[in-house]
């Protein structure tokens, strides 16, 4: 009961903040004219690494059309853009929407990608939009249109996120966009992974990511043990376990099961780069595998996200990927023999 009351109170507080923000904001009346646009700020905060990876192609396409593109992003995910040549500025959004030197910033166009998700997202995005001087503002399926010149709504809810971004880009005159992902893997991390994997040059490397950011999308200890036993029936396969150190600490290592010693995201990415295939329940690793064009078997758990079906919105979305949907909306219900049924032919193919 207390949790339900707390949730209701939070919802009321968000609604009050939203009313204040909207009440203090002027309605957009000038129609969007892209002839007036040279600088674009893309709002991409309060989201995970997978979401950021999916958006990378959009920055490249906007840059190629001559726009100066900046990204508003959380500190924890900003590292993904540090080497990205298509980004003009990385603007870190701190807690409560605080942005250093925000009064000095101006953009011809702001693009809101995520305020549609829920009240929390909506308030954070509205607060940033109000702070930043700009001429135009558009959003992906935004709920409160007063402060936007327009809300771009795809024809279907059963789409991949890149299709939604393609719709946004067409709206501003960017057609036939290539929205493949851009990852700039640090050379030093690749070298570390290469050295670590040097003793296994004659083996096939399978990267296994058993844990997601929440329990619903993660495998159980029993499932992990069962899959590792199946994988180890192949004598020339080495399994590299990747994931957060505190989550994978209890997984038993062996001669052919090794926990990744490179603990950063880039360290995991380097292992994926040198792997022969990937098995993952975590979407950031799924989209990383896409960016690096690696054979993949992924397991999804049927969650709704901002009114869209996650199985479509965040699907692997490339030819070398197999996407499995766990029964009853949780990875713990995935049959490991069924999973291995899809893994086995990929191993046989890479061995041949």
UniProtKB/TrEMBL annotation:
<feature type="transmembrane region" description="Helical">
    <location>
        <begin position="39"/>
        <end position="59"/>
    </location>
</feature>
<keyword id="KW-0328">Glycosyltransferase</keyword>
<dbReference type="GO" id="GO:0009244">
    <property type="term" value="P:lipopolysaccharide core region biosynthetic process"/>
</dbReference>
<protein>
    <submittedName>
        <fullName>Glycosyltransferase family 9 protein</fullName>
    </submittedName>
</protein>
<dbReference type="InterPro" id="IPR051199">
    <property type="entry name" value="LPS_LOS_Heptosyltrfase"/>
</dbReference>
<dbReference type="InterPro" id="IPR002201">
    <property type="entry name" value="Glyco_trans_9"/>
</dbReference>
<keyword id="KW-1133">Transmembrane helix</keyword>
<keyword id="KW-0808">Transferase</keyword>
<keyword id="KW-0472">Membrane</keyword>
<dbReference type="GO" id="GO:0005829">
    <property type="term" value="C:cytosol"/>
</dbReference>
<keyword id="KW-0812">Transmembrane</keyword>
<dbReference type="Pfam" id="PF01075">
    <property type="entry name" value="Glyco_transf_9"/>
</dbReference>
<dbReference type="GO" id="GO:0008713">
    <property type="term" value="F:ADP-heptose-lipopolysaccharide heptosyltransferase activity"/>
</dbReference>
């Amino acid at each position: 009961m207390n949790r339900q009351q707390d949730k209701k109170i939070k919802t009321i507080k968000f609604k009050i903040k939203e009313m204040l923000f909207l009440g203090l904001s002027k309605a957009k009346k000038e129609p969007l004219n892209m002839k007036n646009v040279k600088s674009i700020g893309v709002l991409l905060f309060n989201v995970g690494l997978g979401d950021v990876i999916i958006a990378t192609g959009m920055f490249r396409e906007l840059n190629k059309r001559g726009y100066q593109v900046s990204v508003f992003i959380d500190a924890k995910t900003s590292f993904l853009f540090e080497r990205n040549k298509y980004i003009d500025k990385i603007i870190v959004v701190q807690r409560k929407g605080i942005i250093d030197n925000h009064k000095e910033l101006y953009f011809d166009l702001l693009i809101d990608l995520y305020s549609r998700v829920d009240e929390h997202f909506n308030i954070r995005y509205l607060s940033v939009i109000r702070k930043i001087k700009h001429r135009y503002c558009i959003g992906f399926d935004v709920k409160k249109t007063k402060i936007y010149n327009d809300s771009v709504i795809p024809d279907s809810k059963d789409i991949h996120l890149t299709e939604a971004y393609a719709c946004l880009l067409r709206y501003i005159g960017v057609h036939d966009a290539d929205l493949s992902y851009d990852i700039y893997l640090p050379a030093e991390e690749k070298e570390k992974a290469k050295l670590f994997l040097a003793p296994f040059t004659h083996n096939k490397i399978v990267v296994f990511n058993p844990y997601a950011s929440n329990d619903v999308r993660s495998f159980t200890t029993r499932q992990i043990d069962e899959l590792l036993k199946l994988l180890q029936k192949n004598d020339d396969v080495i399994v590299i376990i990747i994931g957060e150190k505190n989550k994978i600490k209890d997984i038993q290592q062996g001669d052919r099961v090794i926990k990744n010693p490179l603990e950063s995201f880039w360290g995991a990415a380097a292992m994926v780069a040198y792997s022969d295939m990937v098995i993952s329940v975590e979407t950031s690793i799924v989209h990383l595998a896409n960016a690096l064009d690696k054979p993949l078997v992924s397991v999804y758990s049927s969650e709704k996200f901002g009114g869209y079906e996650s199985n479509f919105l965040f699907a692997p979305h490339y030819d070398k990927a197999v996407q499995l949907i766990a029964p009853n909306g949780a990875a713990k219900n995935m049959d490991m023999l069924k999973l291995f049924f899809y893994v086995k032919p990929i191993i046989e193919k890479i061995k041949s």
